[in-house]
Specification:
The protein is of the alpha+beta class and 201 residues long. The protein is 41% helix and 18% strand.
Amino acid sequence: MGRLGDVAEQARNNVSPFSAPDTLFLHFSIPAFDEGQWPKLESGADIKSQKTLVPPGVVLLSKLNPEINRVWLVDVRPQDRVVRSTEFLVLRPRSPYGRSFQYCTPRSEGFRREIEGLVTGTSKSHQRAQAGAILGLATLKPSEALVRAFEGVAGPLLERTLQCRCESRTLAALRDALLPKLIREEPRVKDAERFLKERGL
């Protein structure tokens, strides 16, 4: 056994997006997670508070209301300008532990029970766990061989999850772009419906 801080380190590269008002940032926030785990594209002028840069290969773990399982497997490229809400911890796996292990650990039932016991605050809607306490939680430290085996199985599955999420987002954008055109072309839609009805389809 070890501590979460033994298998992951906290990335803390802070940035002030509002100092670059014309720059576009991918913003990982609590609302963005809850609305489909897709970051919002926002200008620096619209992001009023200080944020932390999100590098590739990390996992985001929410400190806010930890009874809600908000663990985000992010998909970013080195050239992207990416920031996150301060409600998230940015966890970078320590070698030999990979991102799949780092993602699955805080999603486990036992870990969720432990993190829920760390909350502070009197308001039910704004209870938080402190970063240091989270990093101090007990976790498994499997052997390097076992970690490699786990990554070999879980890694491709999680990558496929990211691909499906991206494809779903693309299809949703296509739907939103085409639907108004279909509505404006209502006579053609009616013609198509009549065509299908005449043929018993």
